[in-house]
Design brief:
The chain is α+β, with helices and mostly antiparallel strands. It has one domain (48-197). It is built from three helices and eight strands. The protein has helices at residues 2-12, 15-20, 31-43, and strands at residues 69-84, 94-100, 106-111, 115-118, 123-133, 142-147, 159-169, 183-197. The protein has an eight-stranded antiparallel barrel with strand order 1-2-3-4-5-6-7-8. The model is unreliable at 1-52 (pLDDT under 50).
Amino acid sequence: MTTETNKMKTTNEPPAFRRLGPVVMPVLSGRKAIIGALAFLLTGGLTALAGTDNRAPEVPEEIAVGPTNRVHFHGFAIGVQIYTWDGVSWGRAVPEATLFDAEGNIVAIHFAGPTWQSNSGSKVVGAVVQPTVTVDTNSIPWVRLAAVSPEGPGIFAETTFIQRVNTVGGKAPSANGAFVGQVARVPYNADYFFYRATNN
């Protein structure tokens, strides 16, 4: 039974996490632990957290971005999806994550909105475009978001669309909350692709 569970966990983890084994998942319990652990791991040569090119990912047609837009930034996020029990359901998730570039540098934070804000100050808020796609029933869906208010110069300037793909974890608890206002912080990771309009 334990062997089967471990196999299932490994199958759902991205390649970078499979190589790291049990080192990464326990550190997903808190933001400070995440950043500290990643700094340690990255100094050990882990540079595959985000893609090294700007090609669009292969995704289901429902969340594809048209040919008049091109990927300009790809980041890997590690953080939590935060749920609050309202007495009936866990409600809508609020993200709290850190985005890393291909070299493992922290380049942005991701928080309620959903909003992404870069170290240089550029910011973009997204709105989910339906439908979303469930690729892994144990993880939050893959989504396409329309950029509703890109601001400032930098990596998020002129963003038109965002895709969240390759998700691991982040789903609301399956059990009801014990009291109204109970908060659940569920670890997750995902790739985010940011697009801009192109004339090509």
